[in-house]
UniProtKB/TrEMBL annotation:
Protein name (Swiss-Prot/TrEMBL): Sacsin/Nov domain-containing protein
InterPro entries: HATPase_C_sf, SACS/Nov_dom, Sacsin_chaperone_reg
Sacsin/Nov domain segment(s): 20-108
Coiled coil: none
Superkingdom, taxonomy of origin: Eukaryota
UniProt GO MF annotations: Hsp70 protein binding
């Protein structure tokens, strides 16, 4: 690498890679997501991977208005809803990971809870 170019070479290296339309990729994941309790197990596993000490689910029975929606098709999604919460801190790395949807980056940490609720250690 030519050292006289300095920052230009680093920018090329950082920007290199395949790009995927994030909205399209999320849509594909949701369409192909298996039915059943898989999504709940995934939420629990994500909370555990993030180091959360609390995980809560809340059934929100409210139904919200539809007048201000961008599309009338969104009306069906205005409630009720199942809300998920965990107390882990969302980091800069987490924000960066969102742009890499579909790329597994699971950290294995002995002693953490498995999806089944049994200890991995």
């Amino acid at each position: 690498m030519d050292s006289s170019r300095g920052g230009a070479d680093l920018m090329l290296l950082e920007d290199f890679g395949q790009r995927v339309d994030l909205t399209r990729r999320i849509r594909e994941i949701l369409v192909n997501y298996p039915e059943g309790t898989t999504v709940l197990k995934e939420l629990i596993q994500n909370a555990d991977d993030a180091g959360a000490t609390k995980f809560c689910l809340c059934l929100d029975r409210r139904i919200h208005g539809v007048k201000s929606l961008l599309s009338s098709k969104l009306g069906q999604w205005q409630g009720p809803a199942l809300l998920a919460y965990n107390d882990a801190i969302f980091t800069e790395e987490d924000f960066a990971s969102i742009s890499r949807v579909g790329i597994a980056r699971r950290r294995v940490r002995p002693g953490r809870l498995a999806v089944s609720g049994e200890s991995c250690s």
